[in-house]
Specification:
Blueprint: H1 3-17, H2 21-28, H3 32-39, H4 47-57, H5 61-66, H6 72-78, H7 81-118, H8 123-148
Helix pairs in contact: 2-3, 7-8
């Protein structure tokens, strides 16, 4: 996906409707600054906005992702399946990211809690600490992979930040 091309396509679709960025933003419940960021290719709309955005502009999700109007016969060939598979992949990555954070936390808690008991007991607790640190290290490895894929914390690929805002703001 080319963010700049998608942004230019969004701009063209909006202008085709004769709307300003503020008018489109009002219909979607976002700021006109967010629309500007999308159209300039700085960020992408949040995944939860793809469907309402496409309905509002009268385009298919496939057209949004390919950044061009697709004739009906070609749409039938591509189908909405390709677009939906992108949604599914993004959703799976987000779930995997959350799992990774939980795994890291559990690993650290296991290692720290059992390290406290190491002063009193020896062999069995040592194995727990070792497993805890291994779990935490594995989670860090997975986090690095997600960050490389653009899904790490505070990354442009993070849907919570896709419109340029921080979660909870």
């Amino acid at each position: 996906m080319d963010q700049k091309a998608i942004g230019a396509f969004l701009s063209a679709c909006r202008k085709e409707k004769g709307w300003t960025q503020a008018q489109l933003a009002e219909q979607l419940g976002v700021t006109d600054k967010s629309i500007s960021r999308w159209e300039n290719g700085v960020t992408m709309p949040d995944l939860s906005l793809y469907e309402p955005l496409c309905k509002t502009l009268g385009i298919q999700i496939s057209e949004l992702l390919y950044a061009r109007k697709i004739p009906a016969e070609e749409l039938a060939r591509f189908g909405e399946q390709s677009a939906m598979s992108l949604f599914k992949t993004k959703s799976q990555l987000m779930t995997f990211r959350i799992f990774t954070e939980i795994l890291f936390t559990v690993g650290m808690l296991t290692a720290i809690t059992t390290a406290h008991f190491l002063t009193t007991y020896s062999a069995p607790w040592f194995l727990c600490v070792l497993c805890g640190w291994f779990t935490a290290a594995f989670a860090l490895f997975l986090r690095a992979k997600l960050t490389k894929a653009g899904m790490g914390p505070d990354r442009p690929g993070d849907p919570a930040l896709a419109d340029g805002t921080k979660p909870g703001v």
